[in-house]
Each structure stands twice: as structure tokens, then as C-alpha cells.
Amino acid sequence: MRNATKQTILKLLARSANGQTTLQIAHDLNLSRSATSLYLNQLAQQNLVLKQDTYPIIWQINGAKQSTLTDAFQKFIGVQGSCHKMIEQCKAAISYPPTGLPILIHGNSGVGKTFLAHLTFEYLHQQHAKCAAKLVVFNCADYANNPELLSSALFGYRKGAFTGATQNKTGLLTQANGGMLFLDEVHRLSFANQEKLFRFMDTGEFQVVGASDQVTTAQVRLIFATTEDPSKVLLPTFLRRIVTILELTDYHQRPLAEREALLRELIRKEGARLHKNIQVDEAVFQQLLHQQLAGNIGELKNQVQILCAQALQSQQSQSQLIIGDPQHQGINIMPQQVSQPPSGFNQALQQKLQQQLQQVTAVKTLQDLLWHFAESHFTALNLDRTYTWRSLQQIITDNTQKIMGDAQLVQPFLQTLMIYVMDFSNCFNKKLMQRFRWQIQLNTPRLVLFTQKITIQIPKEYQKLLRFLLQIFLQGQIVEDLPYQALLVAHGNSTASSIQAVANQLCHAYLFDAIDMPINSDLQEVILKVKNWLAERDTAKGVIMLVDMGSLTQLYKSLKPEIQGELLVINNLTTSFALEIGQHLLNHHRFIDITENAKRLFQTKIQYFEGFSDKQNIIIASILGFDIAQKLQQILQPLIYPDLKIIVMNFKDLTELLQHARQEPDYLKNTKLILTTSYLEKKTTVPTFNLLDITDEEGDLTALNYKLQQIINPKNLSEFINRCISFFSKKGLSEKLNFLNPEIIIKQVESIIEKCERRFSINLNNKTKFNLMIHLALMVERTILDSPAYPVPVALEQLQVNGLNFYTNVKDILHFIENFYHITISDWELYILYEIIIG
To answer: Sorted alphabetically, which SUPFAM superfamilies does this protein's record hold (predicted)?
Structure first.
């Protein structure tokens, strides 16, 4: 009885990386504290457990003695998790009488194939199985280029069998007789040797090289390993005789908890080797944890050793080795710790919970059960707070705080939740969660959306269970009877979400969702994001949106078809406005009342804009770039009438502005003239003028003078024209360049223009050539400076010039300049080039 109790204590400690106190062990095993203390001290005297001089005392398994407690496969990380089924298959195959079934271990380099083979032999040895006397290991790659030599190594040879065979030599099968033979890289066996080997697998017989008249027998368990696809490198007849194929996944594909355990074990082994505790900076630990390595665990081991070697150079005399920044939060790993990920520490508790879960059919009953079970059994637990545990908890806390302003909504049950996830996950199978899924979705749709938001960054292996348990524990905590959906939209990294957090916190409810848009997002991108948000929600009662900018007309027209109910868009997003709307939602006010109140409170914000600008203005935009428009402003500013305002904008913004103006005729009523360096496709009531017309010797000077006299005093007109001619000349181009050599780039762009004319069989006028020259030169500078590119409104691959594919040909023409400056020209720049060429 005492020995059985001690074994139970050892098994309990073996599954706790950070150890447990006497009281915790006594509680888990239903023992008295004094009896537990007695057993623990006896185990310590036997050097099976370690006693830490802390208060209270912490007991840990002695890592060096752990292998004597359970079967050898307990050392294989994942044996209770993702690899459980595989290990059970391995046990069954290798134990099959009389000498096991052949096993093939398949996986990429560094995943642990050799380690698994050695554990398999160790397991056989522990079980006192037949043919477990010795392990012979051979890598077939060593003789891959000499099949005959490989055959002699495998089967042995007789004296005189070939030149150099001066004496008899036993082969690997004979050496492994009564034991196990592990052939690594078995795909390097020739087909002839595979045929010889599968004969042995069938009969237990083989022929020694040079002894064809004599049959030799042996009893050997066989394990093979390969990095290649077995169906492509092994004979079908050979492969058919391998009943069990074990698949080992890459390091980055293993569950997060197992990756953590693998990493901890590698660090622990280095600590044992150096006789030091090791502290790893959490940032370094996280980087190692999430790497995708070609060499998998083997390469990870090398990285850990390099980090330890680098740290050891400056910390030889220290008892603890610190990897990374000592000021950062670190993860402490002691040589004696066990690195197996947390698993069900108490099988009886798991079975008890599973039995109770089978009887539950209602969500509220399930919530009560989980609370009661936790209160009854979790109070004295001190489960391992691993990095995985803490990182999952941090994600939920941070995301809840981002939406609600604080994490009070989840804090009361977060520890309990994590215990269920990390130690009782097997109790919540797919069938159980499916039983409650439709109840939860039907009755608490807002809760479902909320839990999806706060678990969006959770690793997939934990995501479903975490969402399910959050939906159970948060029952009744999320307002479901809101009259309308509410959304905040703003440009900036966190503008909308910051207001969302404050408004939800002060209203003490999850009322608002938020969409943060990048600063350079256009209206169509905003509309697309909002449409995706609407698709996930019931909009039958209505939707209220607070936005920071954008045309109300376009927003309304674009979004209204997506909404079953009413839509109110308020073009002003502030915390006070959000709080005002929040109170209306909580008070269940009618939609029409909210609208009327909004008109009264936000009168200047929800009415349509009466115009683009309240002052008489000129708009300047250039397809050649914003900097060109700014320089044109500098030329024009001292020459125009003083009551006029110059507005400079990106060419893309101008096209959107004109689209808006077509829907609101008076939108540009104060704009006197639009100046560009290209012709506009979109028609407008505002006069427009392409400044490159000034360089056209055959241009209509009368029309030119008439348009310019609307903004420039006639006495300044000739000066303006002369400045523009100079600006658009080669000399002017040289002055526009910031760092490129004008002589070189001008020759290069002239060559490009000439090639374009030849390739597309076109003749460009001087004005278009000027435009192209400026665009191409500045395009190279912009690309070198990594200036932002805009989305292209058309499919470039479909554009044609004179029946020729534009994209393919122009990429070919520009190839030399991309190589010369080591750049890649964006599709946006190519699109502008196309627009200039076609005029």
C-alpha cells in the first residue's frame, strides 16, 4: 500500500514542472498532511524527489530518476497530446509477438525520428520483451553510392566473396539477432537490397554475401526511418510489409504547449550540462517558440546551444545563466525540471467531469456545473503557469481591455477557464460542443461575436475550446437585446477602438464595435470593411454609424442595400457623441427619436456638406506626383488674385473628389479652376486646364488666356507662362530632381520613351514626351525612397496600347532601369505611365 501511494505521488509530481506543496499533494490524493509529508521525505531520501528550501516547501520530481517511474515513451513530448495515438500504435506494433511488426518513422530532418527509435528500444527493454537485448543502429546513407558494399554490411559476407574480403564478416542482421535493428535513411537502400530485406521480413531468413548455398536466420525487430515520401522511394512490395508508418510533424506544426515543452527540455538539458539554472528573456523565448525551422528540433537545439555559449562567455562565475536582457521578464528553467507539457494530473477528476457533462443539456446548467466543479476541486491546485498559459491569458485580457476599457468582464473566471483548457481539454470533445452550439448562436449572437473578437490571435489548437468556454462563462454578461447595431469608424491605428473602449466602459456594456482604418485608406476600402462587419450581424432593426470623415451620400448609398433596417450615419466621431448614442441604445429609444436628437445635437455634423471649401479656390493636382503639384503652387501663389486660396491634393484624391461632385452639383461651387498636368476623364462643371498645354506651340492661346485670366492678373500672365515653360523643360526637370544625376536619368528616360514609341508603334507629341520625361525621372526617385503606392483601379494585365499588352511590354522596357537602380516599380506607377501614354 505504501509503495503504491509513493508511486502515485511520483506520478503526480512528474506532471508538474514547477512542483507542488505538501498541502496540494495531500488534497489531490485525499491523504493527511502528516502522512503525505512522511512519504515525501522517504522519497527524498531515495533521491527520487527534490525538496526546495522555500516556504511553503516545494516538492519536485528528480529529473534524473524520472525514467524509472513510467514507460520510456513518457520522455517523448506530446505522448499525452498530439502524439498519443502514434505512440500507442508504436507500442502495439513493436510488442506484437513474436518479434514485433516492422515500423517506418517518416518525417523531415530534425523532427526526432532517431530519438523515437531509441525510446522504442528502451520501452522494449523495460517490458523485458523478447528481442530487446541490444540495439544496432545503421545509416544507409553511409554506403548509398555502393549498393554491393551496403548489401555486405547488412547481410555480412564470407571470406573471398569479393576482392578485399580477406575474412568472414557478420552483417547487421546477425549483430542485431535477439535485439532491434534501426535503419535510418532507409530510402538510400537500392531496390535489390530492399528485395533481400523484405524476404527476411517474411521468413526471418537471409543469405550472407558469398554463401548463396547457405541460409542464415535471425530474430530481429526492425525500425526504419526516412525523410522522403515512402511511396516514391520504396518498392511497393517492400512498403506493403511495413504495417505501421509513424508520421512525425515539423516543429512549427506541433501544438503550442508541446513546442514550449520541447524548448524547455532543450534548455533544461543545457542547464544540466553546465550545472546552472537558466533564465531566458521572454522575448527570446517567444522568438524561439514561433520559428519555422528547416532543421526542426535539431536546428532549434543548435540555436539554444549557441545562445547558452554566448551567455556563458560573460557569466562563467554566475550560478544562473541569463539569456537575453536581464531587465526583461524571464522564464526560469532548472536542470531538474520536467519539460513534458501539462496533462490531466488527476484521471479520476477528468472521468468525473466527463460523466457529469454527459448529463447536461442546457447552457445555464452547464455554466452552473463548471462553476461548482471548479469551486469543489480547483481551490487547492497550483497548476503550472507555463508560458503558453500566460500568453493565452494575456491575449484574452488585452483584447477584452481594448473593447471594454478594462478586463473586469473576464477576470473573475479567467484562472478557472485556463485550468479547464490546459488540464481538462479532453473532457470537451467536438460532440459536446456541437450539442450547445446552436443554443448559444441562437440566444446569444452578440456574445458569440464578442468571444470571436477577443480570441482572434489565439492559436488554432486552443481557439475553439476557449471560445466555447468563454461563451459559457460569459452567459448573461453581454447585452443581447440592443435595439440597434452600433459601429465607430475612424482613420488611425487606434482612434475608433480607443473611443469604443471608453464608451463601452462608461456605459458598462458592450455596445459599440470599432473599425480602425489606415490613414491612407480611401472611401471604398472603408465601405468594404463596413460591409464585412454588417454581414456578421442582424441589421433588421437598424444600424447607427459614427464616422470621422467621408461623404455621407456615398456611405449611405453604398451601405443601405446591405442593411435590412434603417441606417443613420453621423459624420463626427467623438467620445461625447458615442456616449450620447450609447445612452439612447441602453434606454431603447426609437430610431426616429435618436435621429431627431442627433440632428439637434450634431446639427453641423450630420447635414450634407454644402461645398468643398467656403472660400474661392483653385485646385492643383498632378498625375506626376504630389511634389510637382506643390512646386506648381509655389510658382502660382505670388501671381494669383489675393482672395483666392490654392488647394493642393494627390491626383487620386482629385478623381474621387470629382466623383463626389457629380453626386452633389454644388460641391465645387467655390472652385474657380482645376489645374493639372494631364487631361481629366471625369467631366465637371468647373473649368479645368492642363498646364502642359502651355508648352504646345500649336495650342489655342485665346482659350488659354481666358481660363488663366480667371485667376491671374493679366499683367502677370506672361510671367506665369514663362515660368511654366521653364519648369517643364529639361532644365526645369534637373531642378526637380533631389539626388539623381540629371544627365544620366534624362538620357535613360529619353531611351525609355523612344523604346515605347517603337514597341507600341506610336508617335508621341512634345507635350506627352515632356509629361513622360518628368514622370519617369521622378518615378525612379519616388521608388528609391519607397514612397507609398496606391491601389490600381483596373487590371493592368488587360490594358493594351495599339493592340499590344501594355503590362508585359512596359515591364520589359523598364527592366534595365530597375536593374540599374535596384528597384521594383509599383503597379500604381505603371498605371500612371499608361494614362500618360494614351493621353
So the answer is: P-loop containing nucleoside triphosphate hydrolases, PTS system fructose IIA component-like, PTS-regulatory domain, PRD, Winged helix' DNA-binding domain
Which residues partner with 209 through β-bridges?
157
Using one digit for the tens of pLDDT, what is the confidence trace for 696-722? 655 555 666 777 777 888 788 878 877
Class for the domain spanning 485-606:
alpha beta
* 72-249: CATH topology: Rossmann fold (3.40.50)
Task: Specify the long-range contacts of residues 726-735, CB closer than 8 Å, at least 24 apart.
Answer: 727/631, 727/632, 727/635, 728/691, 728/692, 728/694, 728/695, 728/770, 728/774, 729/770, 730/773, 733/773, 733/774, 733/777
DSSP, collapsed to helix, strand or coil, labels residue 62 as coil
Q: What is the pLDDT of residues 545-583, one digit of tens each?
A: 888 866 555 677 778 788 878 888 888 788 888 898 999
Among 422-426, 455-459, 494-498, the minimum mean pLDDT is found in 422-426
For 469, phi and psi rounded to 5 degrees? -65, -35
751, 769 Cβ separation under 8 angstroms: no
Report cis status (omega within 30 of 0) of the bond before 147. no
d(CA 425, CA 526): 40
E strand segments, 471-530: 485-491, 512-517
Q: How far is CA 409 from CA 377, 443, 504, 583, in A?
A: 23, 19, 12, 20
Class of domain 2-68: mainly alpha
Which run of H or of E encompasses 476?
none
Main-chain dihedrals φ then ψ at residue 170, nearest 5 degrees: -75, 145
303-314 burial by CB neighbour count: b if 16+ within 10 A, else e? bbeebbeebeee
Q: Could you tell me which residues come within 8 angstroms of residue 575 by beta carbon, excluding any fewer than 6 positions away?
A: 499, 502, 503
Q: With contact defined as beta carbons under 8 Å apart, do 234 and 181 qualify?
A: no
Instruction: Give the tens place of pLDDT for each residue, 113-132.
Output: 999 999 999 998 888 767 77
Helix, strand and coil content of the chain, in percent to the nearest 5, comes to 55, 10, 35
Name the helix (H) or strand (E) containing 714: helix 714-727
Q: Where are the domains of the chain?
A: 2-68, 72-249, 255-333, 347-473, 485-606, 617-728, 731-838
pLDDT single digits (tens) 322-332: 998 888 877 88
